[in-house]
Amino acid sequence: MTQANASGKVRRGAGLLALICFLVLAGLGIRHVVHQPYFDIHHIEVTGDTSFTNVGALEKTLWEKLNGNYFFADLDPMRAAVEEVPWVASAKVERLWPDTIRVEIEKRRPIAIWGGTRLISDRGEIFALKNLDTPEAQGLPSFSGPDAMAHEVVEMYGPLSVTVEKLGAKIRDLSVTDRGSWSVVIEGGDIPSTKIELGRNTRDSRVQDRLELVAAHYQEVSRMMGGPPGSIDARYVNAFAATLPRERPKTDAQPSAPGTAAGSAKPAAAAGAGPAGADRAGTTRKGPSV
Q1: Low complexity bias: where (predicted)?
Q2: Burial annotation 130-144 (CB, 10 A radius, 16+ → b, else e)
Q3: Can you list the domains of the chain with their CATH numbers?
């Protein structure tokens, strides 16, 4: 090895060592700078719909969860603390230069009371409150079923509501069993509280289609029966059955039997002449499909 080559290697080694020292010192300097009080968090902003909570109390909780300055604050515990609030669907937590943390809240939108004790959102999220005596819970319909089917119930509610609204009524109760059998209670306008059994979705007959059939013939059936049906069983293919109205006007020709209330639950085939008869729309009642 020549003296020139050795000298070159020494210079390169010295240069590399100098670079390493510079990077170490720079890193230490940057670390010192970013930990200066100037970068401490001085403000927490809570935005979005906060009508459901005490903003001051929520901000206090966020300050307690804050650990670190602008560069080193761990935002996940803050987000988790906000999302523990029952009304919160999600929370977005971000830094705003130079000293602010902003929390944007998305509120859950309840569409029904679930199982009589909890609420369910339009996303199918079930959540519990200390009590249901809140303005947001007033006037909501009731849903019930297995918790695992909550999303399906929300999805079913939309199209069924559209059909019921054609009658000038609303769904007051929507239920599904663990076997997938559906029923609704409707009410509104000239329609008293009426339960409609819809059964299960099958290859030949959907729940929505059965309710559409009821809506299409409801007024005709009400005229035939002398009043709104007491209840309706739509668990058939292209037909449904109805019970007599709960209260029927007494006439001289049709007096109530002694000891029997007018409008007893005597089954009457709606749009059908009997268990196997052709209905008025030309369809045949085949018996319960589900």
Answers
A1: 253-281
A2: eebeeebeeebbbbb
A3: 37-107 (3.10.20.310), 110-270 (3.40.50.11690)
In the block, tokens 């988790």 appear at 80
Structure tokens at 13: 């080694």
| pLDDT tens by residue, 201-251 | 998 889 999 999 999 999 999 999 999 999 999 999 899 999 999 765 454
